[in-house]
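Open question from group meeting: does this chain pack into something compact, or does most of it stay loose? Before anyone orders reagents, we agreed to write out a predicted structure and look at it together. Recording both the input and the output here so the notebook holds the full record.
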Amino acid sequence: MRSATRAGFVLALGLCALAAGGPRAEAPVAPRVDPKRAEIRRKLEVRLARLDSGLDGASAYVIRDLSGGDAFEKDGDAVFPAASTIKVTVLLELFKRAEDGSIDLARPVPIDPQARVEGGGVLEKWSEPYPVLSAEQLAVLMMDFSDNYAANLLIDLLGMESVQKRLRGWGLKGTLLRRRMMDLEAARAGRENLTTPREMATLLDRLYGGEILNAAGTRRAIDIMKRNEGTPIKRGLPQGVEAADKSGELDGLRCDSGIVVVPGRAGRPRPFAISVMTAYLKDDAAGEAFISDVTRAAYDYFGALARSTEHGRKME
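Structure tokens returned:
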């Protein structure tokens, strides 16, 4: 009798399991997070928050590991005036057009002295006779000396709508080239050049990964961006650490976006993309210092990872 009761009980359990769809699958186990890595990540987040709280103004940033999954951000989709960082888009469109054969980088570009604009660079200080300059030489002046007239010459050569169409094709919907450099009337009318930290970091991520230009164009673009000196990102790095970036400044606003190549053990670098933007600044110099400090904090974090084993032992 006892055996019959036990058998009935087991049968009832089986029927219940069938009614419920069979035996339950075990819940997937979440991958284990190394508490040591979690700790140094948390300390970077605290450091970044402390820097942000000390800035008299608004800020946003995106920091993205280009060889792994780490990312840090604050208000990455906030829209800022792009200032001279918009010149990165002009450079990449120029090199893309050269890649598809529609523009010859070596061909001279006419220079009209009456069309010069001020606000930075080299050409505004030159007097006639002007040297013959190619599109590629103008690109170097635009990026390494932030020459506004060189940028305008290239914008006219490419066509503003052509640059904008390319940006849409690359998936950048919030990055807008809507005026030439130093066109204050357009800026006052609301036609500002705009971007976001996320879109600039994404553009540089894709550039580094070879998704924007072919291998030769990628190397050339990054090489040009490495040579500008004294940017906030470069000032935040130890001597000898390479960065390919473009900074921008307007009254009350400072921004910088670039790729930092962190030296690693066994000759394996650990690059990261960084875009930091500030606005409503009480002190413009403080905005630049903030960008440098955020860059150094990110460098210290990725540097520790690049020089260490997965368990945290430092190996040069």
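Observations to bring back to the group:
The chain has two domains: 34-49+56-78+196-316, 87-172.
Residues 1-22 have pLDDT under 50 and may be disordered.
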